[in-house]
């Protein structure tokens, strides 16, 4: 089973700042099969990024994903008030399709 | 538009079973797989498994093997997840979610979640 470790656990930033979230895998994720989701309190997760770097439909271009192998990054170029949430990475290259434990982006 | 509507909250005693439904609309049901993901209170997301709505093939996380069953009813475009021998640590919100595209491996559409509480 591939274990995904996200860091930091919590990121305290102000609107307009840049957020950099990390997702590290215990073994290589095949074919960049990594997705990122955003979850707000009381809501289901929302797909942001798939294939490590492809934005899902309707996702603003301030969200970008990068990485390969075991190291992946989600970057939010300029935080908007609605971006404060918890972010999860998920690998889908092998079963089980594991999630990271999440990074909370909170308002500083 | 794609919609997944799940059944309502459940309260179960330890040792019992629960069956959560997920009714799909807005797309051809048999063209996409359905995954089940759960989230314990205040915790992260946990992938439980996936079922192909095309042929019923399932892929369960090892952790749930022998205790979970995922099925579909194509006549009603409904997916089901049954979890048996419930324990207190099965208390969670259970989500169904549809593949982004056929066999994509990740999901793009989510149900609203069903809270299952296991308590004596």
Reading the helices and strands of chain B in chain order gives EEEEEEEEEEE
Distance between the termini of chain A: 35 Å
Helix content of chain B: under 10%
pLDDT < 50 runs, ≥5 residues of chain A: none
- The rounded Rg of chain A comes to 13 Å
Strand content of chain B: over 45%
> Count of helices of chain B?
0
The secondary-structure class of chain A comes to: mainly beta
Oligomer: heterodimer
Mean pLDDT across the residues of chain B is: 96
CATH class of chain A: Mainly Beta
Main β-sheet description of chain A? 6 strands, mixed
What does the overall shape of chain B look like?
A: globular
Describe the biggest sheet of chain B?
7 strands, mixed
Estimate the global geometry of chain A from the Cα principal axes: globular
Order of helices and strands of chain A: EEEEEEEEEE
Query: Please, how many domains of chain A?
Result: 1
Q: CATH H-level name of chain A... which superfamily?
A: Immunoglobulins
Proportion in β-strands of chain A: over 45%
CATH architectural group of chain A? Sandwich
CATH-defined fold name of chain A: Immunoglobulin-like
InterPro entries (chain A): Ig-like_dom (IPR007110), Ig-like_dom_sf (IPR036179), Ig-like_fold (IPR013783), Ig_sub (IPR003599), Ig_V-set (IPR013106), IgV_Light_Chain (IPR050150)
Subunit structure (chain A): Immunoglobulins are composed of two identical heavy chains and two identical light chains; disulfide-linked.
Protein name (chain A): IG c384_light_IGKV3-20_IGKJ1
Domain Ig-like (chain A): 1-90
Structure description:
The complex is a heterodimer of chains A (108) and B (120). By secondary structure, chain A is mainly beta. Chain A is built from no helices and ten strands. Chain A has strands at 4-7, 10-13, 19-25, 34-39, 46-50, 54-55, 63-68, 71-76, 86-91, 103-107. In chain A, strands 2-10-9-4-5-6 form a six-stranded mixed beta sheet, with no helix packed on it. In chain A, strands 1-3-8-7 form a four-stranded antiparallel beta sheet, with no helix packed on it. Chain A is globular. Chain B is mainly β and 120 residues long. In chain B, the strands form two sheets. In chain B, strands 2, 4, 5, 6, 9, 10 and 11 form a seven-stranded mixed beta sheet that branches. A four-stranded antiparallel beta sheet of chain B has the order 1-3-8-7, with no helix packed on it. The model of chain B has no long low-confidence stretch (mean pLDDT 96). The interface between A and B is medium-sized, with 23 and 24 residues. Chain A: InterPro entries: Ig-like_dom (IPR007110), Ig-like_dom_sf (IPR036179), Ig-like_fold (IPR013783), Ig_sub (IPR003599), Ig_V-set (IPR013106), IgV_Light_Chain (IPR050150). Chain A: This is IG c384_light_IGKV3-20_IGKJ1. Chain A: Keywords: Adaptive immunity, Immunity, Immunoglobulin, Immunoglobulin domain.
